[in-house]
Amino acid sequence: MANNYFLTILCTTFIVVVGGSALIRAMPPQNPIQCNQTGCILYNSYGVWDDRKTCHVAAAVYPTTEEELRLAVANANKNKLKVKVVSKFSHTILKLACPTARNGNAVLISTERYNSSIVVDVANLAVTVDAGVGLRPLIDRVEEEGLSLVAATYWEGVSIGGAVSTGGHGSSWWGKGGAIHDHVIGVRLIVPGNASEGFARVLDLKGDDPLLNAARASLGVLGVISKVTLSLERGFKRSITLNFTNDNGIEDEFMEHAKRYEFGDIQWYPSRYRAVYRYDDRVPLDTSGDGVYDFIGFRPILAVIPETVRALEKAAEATKNQNPKCIMATLSIAYRKLIANGLKNNLVFTGYPVIGHQGKMQTSGSCLYSPQTDKDSVCAWDPRIKGLFFYESSAILPATTFADFIRDVKKLRNINPDNFCGVDMYDGFLIRFISKSDAYLGQAEDSVVVDFNYYRADEASTPRLNEDVLEEVEQMAFFKYSGKPHWAKNRKLDFAGVKDKYPNFSKFIGAKNVLDPDNMFSSKWSDEVLLGQAEKVKEDGCALEGQCICSEDRHCSPGNGYYCRTGLVYKEARVCRYSGFRSG
Ligand SMILES: Cc1cc2nc3c(=O)[nH]c(=O)nc-3n(C[C@H](O)[C@H](O)[C@H](O)COP(=O)(O)OP(=O)(O)OC[C@H]3O[C@@H](n4cnc5c(N)ncnc54)[C@H](O)[C@@H]3O)c2cc1C
Ligand SMILES: *[C@@H]1O[C@H](CO)[C@@H](O)[C@H](O)[C@H]1NC(C)=O
Ligand SMILES: *[C@@H]1O[C@H](CO)[C@@H](O)[C@H](O)[C@H]1NC(C)=O
Ligand SMILES: *[C@@H]1O[C@H](CO)[C@@H](O)[C@H](O)[C@H]1NC(C)=O
Ligand SMILES: *[C@@H]1O[C@H](CO)[C@@H](O)[C@H](O)[C@H]1NC(C)=O
Ligand SMILES: *[C@@H]1O[C@H](CO)[C@@H](O)[C@H](O)[C@H]1NC(C)=O
Question: Within 10 Å of residue 335's Cβ, how many Cβ atoms?
């Protein structure tokens, strides 16, 4: 009965999605910095930070040239203000873009208007861009010159400065690999200076300057990146085929898959026993095909659809019934298969392989565009609607331990596959590849990144359905298999001990102490993560939001029947499990 009801709504929803996509008009994301006479508030793209606290800042400045950027740093330094840089996009999920005030005074430097210069050096296969330039304008400009940027995040709504600073990546073990910062060959960095230097200095880091290895992925704590120089390659096309198949042997195949296909990835839906292998190779420019990848999850969507999905999720959560989530997972996978995840040979998907220019295939985000006036459709997570709201976990594991991680997750899945429906109705587990890096905060070896999104409650104190299962996966990834967190995603607990996981971490801190000795660019968040100064006090309910690992029941939600228990497969895990209204 309940299922029929859900099915009816879902089918209607999907008909609206399929049938309505031609009519869509969109409202672009809102500006992350909102100011009035009393000050400013910084939001991220989801409208809520990891700790759910508001980020208040005294003022925001919008430099348009490198000299204005330098003056902004000088001015802040002279006045002993804390500083953070933020892009027009502010897609960081973690609070790393929020300055913590010294004497209540902090300033945000926005790169929103520092985005005019893109200089392509065709002869040397390189491009130098202002840090505020978006990934899309950069790629389009480079392609006009017959060149290609090889690595990109899958989502194009990032600035170059932001993407490089947080280790933004796509997927590749070939060449320089899938992380954008490994294609960086130069950084112009503005750091505090003394009075005779005018309170700020511009450093031009290139070649084998060791500071470049610090600046490649710098979390915004070294200073302001003014310009980034990236290496390019001769233009090429991509040929993509998606193989929707079963998930037997992912653990035995991923390595070969990554070696065989330059841009391969794997999407794994454990509850459905499904895997989607992306066969993705570069092909010469003269190969016929004018395809586009307009990823389904990043398209503008009628607000009513994510609102309906959210309402269904909340109903499923409230009744502790995972069936609706399983139905949504099944329908979502079927729909994705039908439309090839958003790959289009021309205007629509007509069959594999889909072949198109690198610039049209490497990244997408059509929900970013369209006129401000039309409010019918948005990015599915737009905070102005009651749409999708979720956690994003992203663990970077050494390739050598990844198979064991998959085996463990399968063991947990086999106990009750439906426990994974909540993650499968999003994107399941997205498995991508990044290479060994020279960056101090890059990877010391070829690695596998696994991303998974899942429901986040409206209230911090509300436990989630099958909370324990994904907590166990998370703790396996980060602690049993020593996974490293993506610098812009994840929940706070995942950062515990991160400094011991990077062999060159102390070199990074050394560079930070040289470039920013007075910690102008440090914040509460960076001190906690980089210096290991996390608060030791665990508040009631802290495990629900990933602010801690539970060690007592009160860290979960005993009032709702969730107690701190051991993991089912990874016995060292401590997770919040629903066991009814008894503490036995
Ligand atoms: C929908 C979505 C999809 C995503 N997909 C991917 C993906 O496929 N792969 C991936 O790796 N990541 C992905 N991410 C994460 C994303 O790459 C990071 O959040 C990235 O940092 C966003 O860039 P931004 O320009 O919005 O940065 P911001 O959020 O503006 O800034 C990020 C950090 O960099 C610092 N910073 C920014 N500009 C500068 C500068 N000029 N100088 C110094 N510091 C600076 C900021 O202080 C902040 O600490 C995704 C995020 C979202 C929301
Ligand atoms: C002005 O901003 C402050 C914080 O910066 C906020 O508390 C207040 O609600 C805002 N007022 C208006 C009218 O937007
Ligand atoms: C810079 O940003 C403005 C406003 O967002 C935009 O119109 C312009 O196209 C951008 N320029 C480049 C080179 O990206
Ligand atoms: C300022 O810094 C420069 C370069 O680091 C140094 O040579 C100079 O002595 C410093 N001046 C003062 C007044 O500290
Ligand atoms: C899809 O993947 C499966 C598992 O790796 C493989 O057996 C099958 O041959 C593949 N199909 C195609 C069309 O490549
Ligand atoms: C990082 O550390 C490793 C191990 O100590 C070392 O081999 C490597 O050269 C270092 N990388 C850089 C860029 O310093």
Answer: 14
Do both 76 and 192 map to the same domain?
no
Is residue 524 included in any domain, yes or no? no
Nearest CA residue ID for atom 5, ligand 6: 503
Residues 22, 479: Cα–Cα separation, whole Å? 46
* Ligand 3 site, CB within 6 A: 115-116, 118, 133-134, 137
Task: Give the C-alpha separation, 292 to 357, whole Å.
Answer: 8
Domain boundary among 188, 204, 234: 234
Confirm if 431 and 483 have CB atoms less than 8 A apart.
no
Q: For the beta carbon of residue 179, count every other beta carbon within 10 angstroms.
A: 30
183: tokens are 């294609």
Q: Whose CA is nearest to atom 10 of ligand 3?
A: 115
Which ligand has the shortest distance to the CA of 353? 5
What CATH number is associated with residue 88?
Answer: 3.30.43.10
For residue 197, which atom of ligand 4 is closest to its CA? 1
The average pLDDT across 385-412 equals 97
The per-type count for the chain, helices as H runs and strands as E runs, is 14, 27
Q: From the centroid of its chain, how far is CA 213? A: 22
- C-alpha of residue 373 to centroid of ligand 3, in Å: 19
Distance 296 CA to ligand 3 centre (A): 25
390 lines ligand 5 (CB under 6 A): no
Write down the mean pLDDT value for the chain. Answer: 92
Residue nearest to atom 8 of ligand 4 (CA): 196
Pick from 451, 475, 495: which residue ends a domain? 495
From the CB of 503, is ligand 6 less than 6 Å away?
A: yes
Q: Are strands 484-485 and 562-566 parallel, antiparallel or unpaired?
A: unpaired
Is 3 among the domain residues? no
Pairwise CA distance, residues 255 & 197, whole Å: 51
Distance CA 31, CA 518 (A): 30
Determine the structural domain holding residue 52 and report its residue range: 33-110
The Å distance, Cα 168 to ligand 6 centre, comes to 21
Residue 222 backbone dihedrals phi, psi, to 5 degrees: -95, -25
Question: Would you say residue 192 has pLDDT above 50?
Answer: yes
Query: Ligand 6 centre from 29 Cα, in Å?
Result: 40
Q: Please count the structural domains in the chain.
A: 3
Residue-wise pLDDT for 335-394, tens only, equals 999 999 999 999 899 999 999 999 999 999 999 986 555 557 889 999 999 999 999 999
